[in-house]
From TrEMBL:
<dbReference type="InterPro" id="IPR006626">
    <property type="entry name" value="PbH1"/>
</dbReference>
<dbReference type="InterPro" id="IPR012334">
    <property type="entry name" value="Pectin_lyas_fold"/>
</dbReference>
<dbReference type="InterPro" id="IPR011050">
    <property type="entry name" value="Pectin_lyase_fold/virulence"/>
</dbReference>
<protein>
    <submittedName>
        <fullName>Uncharacterized protein</fullName>
    </submittedName>
</protein>
């Protein structure tokens, strides 16, 4: 094992591609950038990465290239209000975020857009992770001619109740699968919006609860949502469609207890064995 260094950022610079950075001690660490395949692992310690610098970059910024494979495990990523506007920003690579907590990337006085996780290209998997008190928990989009793929498994997304907040935001040319998760206390829990002439934004919710939001699930501009084995409840509006957006909800969902029943003309109730 190489001699320990004080900062994760320095260890990331020193480790060879394909290597592993192991965080040995609890404490606060500076933000860092990953530009190659590697793993950063914090097991049994509280390693808090502070978003202290960078305007649009992330406290953890991943740009590992199309073939890069990056794993982030056991880290706590916290916004400071004046530093990085993203918790984790992914510009390229295959990235796995596991057992992390990402918080505090909320509205800023300078108006910079903020989010817990932002994906611009690549394939990202988020597992057993808590995202709380961020303006957007996770937002995903794609570059021209590309498709971004994201999956969330067993995640907890907690907002602060603000009207202009989104738990999940999916833009055109992006495909996202969410399973066994919770999305609560946002302006919009799940928001999809496509663009004319672009591949549609698509999302599937399975075994997930969307509750206590202003709008539970909102599909706009030719976007498509499929919901199965999930609960949409206690939202001001449960399911909303607009501008050709579509929501397919299988017969094994519980869409009830919401405070308005205007679900939009694009919502389709279907049998559990629906094939689309």
């Amino acid at each position: 094992m190489a001699a320990p260094v004080r900062e994760i950022a320095r260890a990331v610079q020193l480790v060879e591609a394909g290597g592993t950075v192991v965080v040995l001690d609890s404490g606060e660490y500076q933000d860092f950038r990953v530009d190659k395949s590697l793993s950063v692992i914090a097991e049994g310690v509280h390693a808090e990465v502070l978003g202290t610098s960078g305007f649009y970059e992330g406290a953890i910024y991943v740009d590992a290239g199309a073939a890069g494979v990056v794993a982030l495990r056991g880290l706590s990523v916290r916004g400071t209000g004046a530093g990085a506007s993203k918790g984790v920003k992914v510009s390229s690579g295959r990235v796995r975020i596991e057992r992390c907590t990402i918080s505090g990337f909320g509205s800023r006085p300078d108006g910079a857009p903020t989010a817990g996780i932002t994906v611009y290209r690549g394939t990202v998997t988020v597992v057993d992770t808590v995202l709380r008190d961020n303006r957007a928990a996770i937002e995903a989009s794609a570059q021209a001619g590309e498709v971004t793929r994201v999956s969330l498994e067993r995640c907890r997304l907690h907002g602060d109740g603000g009207n202009n907040t989104n738990g999940i935001q999916v833009n055109a040319s992006t495909r996202m699968a969410v399973s066994d998760s919770l999305v609560t206390d946002y302006g919009i829990g799940v928001y999809l919006r496509g663009y004319t002439g672009s591949p549609r934004a698509m999302l599937t919710l399975t075994g997930t609860t969307v509750a206590n939001n202003r709008i539970g699930v909102y599909s706009d501009k030719d976007a498509q949502v499929v919901i199965a084995r999930s609960t949409v409840t206690l939202n001001d509006s449960g399911l909303v469609t607009l501008n050709g957006g579509v929501i397919y909800t299988a017969g094994d969902n519980a869409v009830l207890g919401n405070f308005t029943t205007d679900i939009g003309a694009g919502t389709v109730y279907a049998k559990p064995d629906l094939s689309i």
